[in-house]
Amino acid sequence: MKYTLSILLVTLIFIGCKEDKNLIFETSSFDNERCSNCATVTISVPKAMGNKKLDEVINNALREEVIFILKYDDEVNANSIDSAIQSFQNEYSKLREKFPEESTLWEASINGAVTYENDRILTIQLDYYLFTGGAHGYGSTRFLNFDKTKATELGNEELFKDIVDFQGFAEAKFREQENIPTSQAINSTGFMFEGDEFYLPENIGFTNDGLQLFYEQYEVASYADGPIILNLPFEEIQRYLIPLSL
């Protein structure tokens, strides 16, 4: 009986240690004042909880990304999400003052979620939508990747052992998905890669199914085509990636 209890205790400790490697998040929500002349802003992003350096790195990166998406008024020194919301509102107010008959309300929504986490890598996806007048709004996705062991944010080139080698593989998969013959230029079917040369998107992130390459609207195709997304399963790309676990 004592032997059985000892095994159980060791097992629970082992499981607990493994679970401790996952970060703890809470949801941080932000919005602005509701009024007839106010833009509509809703933000919901994860916040890493704790006093570790990694938590600070993650939260700072998320804050800077949200500020970058929202900031419209260069005269405002936006150093927080609240001040970025105010920047967005200020620009809308200037428009209303200049064109009082303008009835279209500006809108911004940003939602973030953890899409991948193991003992080394963390990926957070931000989906956002902006409407600032005109025929249509603009929505997109941004990925933030982190090395938990080093407490650093990862650039795209740091996700791969050799990014040039991976790019060649990604181009082959892109051509296969989009039915672009290997004998023809990458833009031969209507894409708009600059210089008619394939390149990786700015937004690359991990999901539980693998790696996602996210080309924003206008990045390589027309607005009508929407975002172009290439999902690559882990089993196909493992040899190109940095070690994802310890």
UniProtKB/TrEMBL annotation:
Residues 166-235 form the DUF3298 domain. Residues 36-137 form the Deacetylase PdaC domain. Pfam families: DUF3298, PdaC. Gene3D superfamilies: Fervidobacterium nodosum Rt17-B1 like, Heat-shock cognate protein, ATPase. This is DUF3298/DUF4163 domain-containing protein. The lineage of its organism: Bacteria, Pseudomonadati, Bacteroidota, Flavobacteriia, Flavobacteriales.
